[in-house]
Amino acid sequence: MKNAKIILLLMAAVFMAGGCMSRALKESVGAVTGAKGVYREVDRTGSLAAYQNFEVASFTDDFKGQAPRALLSKIPAEIQKALKKSELPVGKAGKTLLIRGSVFYFEKAGAMGQAFGPFEEVITTVELVDKGTDEVIGQAVCIGRSTQTVNMGLDKKAQGVAKAVVKWIKSKRPKEGK
């Protein structure tokens, strides 16, 4: 009987440690990959090959004043950084693409999220605008999301939105060498 109790305790410890190990693994991967950035086009966007210059306008709060002000300034700054890192061809001869948007949902992880794994996200609508004509040439919902503690905070959510915007732009440009 005593051996059975010990075996049950060991089995419980193994199952509990498994959950801790998977979270530790997720946190490690999250530290390397950062927040996730995903997008979904609202309007079909044509080719952006003619656009060689990019400008990022300020983002607005469409979440009834609940979006943190700091987030509204961090998103454009992170998009600028992501564009510079993206290796998109930039030249003075091409047209200018203006990137602007608004935050319409923001969720911060609560105490329960900390216990079971945090979930934070910011959802934005982003427009790609021809700067010369002020014509909106594309619109998408871009989301910055994290499910790891290491990726919590406004900076990481803004980085996720930036990843989504750059992925969207890259998907509408010809592949290099083609």
Structure description:
- With 178 residues, this protein is α+β, with helices and mostly antiparallel strands.
- The chain has two domains: 1-33; 35-171, Rossmann fold (3-Layer(aba) Sandwich).
- It has helices spanning 2-33, 69-85, 111-116, 154-171; strands at 36-43, 51-61, 95-107, 120-130, 135-146.
- It has a five-stranded mixed sheet with strand order 1-5-4-3-2.
- A hairpin with a 4-residue loop joins strand 4 and strand 5.
- Helix 2 crosses helix 4.
- The longest helix has 32 residues, at 2-33.
Distance between the termini: 72 Å
Low-confidence stretches: 23-33
User: What is the SS-derived class?
Assistant: alpha+beta
Give the helix level as a range of percent. Answer: 40-55%
Query: What is the overall pLDDT average?
Result: 81
Q: What percent of residues are in strands? A: 25-35%
CATH class of the largest domain: Alpha Beta
CATH architecture of the largest domain: 3-Layer(aba) Sandwich
Number of domains: 2
CATH topology of the largest domain: Rossmann fold
Q: What is the number of E strands?
A: 5
Shape: elongated
- Main beta sheet: 5 strands, mixed
Q: Can you tell me the CATH superfamily of the largest domain? A: ABC-type transport auxiliary lipoprotein component
